[in-house]
Amino acid sequence: MRAGVLAAWRDSPTRLREDAATEADLVRAGYRDRLLTELAQNAADAAAKAGVAGRLVVRLVGDALHVANTGAPLELSGVHALTALRASGKSDGTDVGRFGVGFTAVLSVSDEVELRSATGSLVFSRDLTWDALRQHNIQIPSSPTEDPADGFVPPVLRMVWPSDTAPVDGFDTEVVLRLRPDVDAAALLAGMHAEAIDLLLELPALRRITIETAEFTSTTTDLGNDLREIRVDGPDNAHRTWWQYRAPRARWLLPIRNGRPTAAAPDVLRAPTRSDEELSLPALLIADVAMQPDRRRLLPGARLAELATGYADFARALPPRDRLVLVPTPAFARSEADGLLREALIRELQTHAWLPIVATHPVTADARDQAAGDAAAGLYDPAPQPGSPPVDVAVPTRASALTGLTEELARLLDDVVGPLVIPELSATGQAEALGVLDVHRLGLARLAELSTGLERTPHWWYSLYAALEPFVVDPLAAEELGALAVPLADGRLVTGPRTTVLDDQLEVAIPVHWARLVHPAAAHPLLARLGARSATAEDLLSEPDLRAELEDHPDDADTIDAVLRLAVLADPTALPSWLSLIELPDVAGELRPADELLLPDAPLRELLVEDSPFSAIDPAVVAGYGAQALRAIGVGWDFTVVTEADPTGPDHDLDDEDRWWSTLSDDPPEFAAIRDLDLVDDAAWPEALWQLASAPRTRRLLTDRNGYTAWWLRTNARIDGTPLGLMRHPSDTEFAELLPTFAVPGLADDATAMRAILADSAVITPELAAALLNALADPSKSPTPEVVSRTHATLAAAVAAELLELTDLDLPDRVRALSGDVIDPAQALVLDQPWFGLALPPNRLVAGDIDTASALATLLDLPLVSESVTAEILTPGRRTTWSAEPLGVVLRQLFSLPRQVGDLVLHDDLTVRLHGAIETTASVPWWRDGDTVHVRTPH
Predict the structure, then answer these.
(1) Residue 238: pLDDT above 70?
(2) What backbone torsions phi and psi does residue 113 show, to the nearest 5 degrees?
């Protein structure tokens, strides 16, 4: 063999360089850091061929590394393979290394390699190869570059020499490597120590690996369900365990911790030993797949998807509670192979029946037929698994999962929602894996929807509510169960606990056929948390179903009897006004709505006009149920209050309501008003007001000035022919002697209740303005100058604020002067500059507020003094300034004057002459001419 190699090198120096380069490439690239892996593969192949449990021992003796193994010894074909670089002596398809080049890994640490075998030993040596080249005068190829580091190094494994040394006792083969000086032996052994466990997993023919004194042993146990447990024991009593499942094209291994399988850490594809294809799968993958010669990378076109075949069977072989560990969780793929495998595994899991579901118990023939059809289609498999408790399984895409499912709830829902994932796999932490599998997520809202129409006993419903109660942990969960079905005592099944009543809480049994009363056997506290109410008499009388019943059958005797018996127990203020829809007989036997009937001796009767629409109720009804119950449902006794929350318009059938509503800027948030005020006789208003002020529910409406009731009373109610809105309260002196005084005995002193229905100087309406103008022009009235001035000022302010339309007012023929005289408007002047009031006669002046004098002149159609009269100062004076004159300082403090900018002129006698509408001369203490102020000095 050596002669043939030497002849080839002698004839072709290029061949020599090619062989050297090929060997160097294999050492530097494909088989770097794979020394123990390649030797372990050879040992596993030898053990498998010999049919023995493989054993591998690594020892360091001086500078020599000894690697011995049991199994078939070296054969001639093996010698040829070792020296041929590309040829392999492993013809059995079950052998791991098929390319015959893995042995070059020994050159990563040694140039002197001895292979000892029971059938003969060999030596490979770089030094011996150099000697052979020199002895045979074989030309040494020159370096293609001038770099000394690129010098020629001959190959080692092409030349082989025989040896007489046998392998160590007890072993069939031993490889001895003389370590190069640059090799760190301790680090090399440490690396082998770390590889040992992986090699025992990857190469099942190997059962024991010893690295110096550290021994690693692999044992396999059959668990059933095609599962095997692999345990690797190491030094210091350490051990690790995996569960293995063998599929058609792959072996899958799951790490076991504390007796349960757990997802593997990110790893690499093993074919069967570690490659460089990074993976992020839940289980270790040892695959039979096409690899490149150095077994580091996949061959292009490798059929990775086929490796997923049987993965779902692996999942099904696991205990039910642990099966989701095999689901790849969402993550970025670590390589192209990883991405393809993840997709294939997920597809395999999604399309096969393995996911444990709650055992179903079909309750109808149709349900049984559906279950049988699913089983036949492979979508559902009720068959128990060997070695594990019986469990039903389903295709994940046909199953449903409820996060947090309990055993009790699962038992109740097994035939309600179809295939339901078992509680052990329905925890919050498993929701992500179920999502990957496209398992239908079942929520509380869907459960509530499915409950509609179920035919179950009340006790079953109670159990369902008890099982659902732990899920209601916040308002959102309660909202989701808002459509939960509820069985009623009358046999009906209704949707939504909010519309039901848990218990009538009545001491007397009253047949209430309109209320949604929960069946006592199903009455669970959860229903109260979901909105079911404990019914009082007020609750039962406010039921929407009762209103619908009264609208359709207001004269139903059973309904009327139940309502009136409940009304005795209810708070009348809490009852709805629509109870007055009930029709009861009047004294003539005619049925009439309750709100059109009056009780005998009702105080309201004496206040109404003769042709009012009210009738007296049949005394027999009063005797049977009592006045309290009848008043509670709307039979008249005194005034009735109409209420509505969030009103949208004047639709309450009240007198003149449209006109009042038009005065509002926005719809009121709540509407409350006293009805039938238009039926009160005019002569009865003093007594009617007394009744309204005496009852708290109506008194509060009197005090609301902006409300309908107070507005209607101010506008329409009259005492002695005068509307209340044109009367003043006795304590209100703003319009004293101008408006009539409200003097109803017993009410005149009740300012709190009465002020809102009487005249208010802060709210000037056109009617009040007209009344005040007429009163000012009435010579029979004698208001004081102060009242006259304030009234004029109030009217002028309303005009200035555009609260009055002047075209709507008819001015009287006379006006009231400041003196109190009623004069002809042709003689009147509106005072707009106060100093003119010191010189003009008060019986010619109409005075209000100086700031609104122009508005007053416009209202009364009168001229201003400043436009009709001019003044001339007749007496001389001394001109000075406010700041230089002591009297100026005193005057500013005395009259609280602001700082003056004009001159101050002091006169011993101040006389002015007036021209224009009034011609006169007058002595005055003060006058103003532009910015100049004239003052008569005191003597």
Answers:
(1) yes
(2) -125, 130
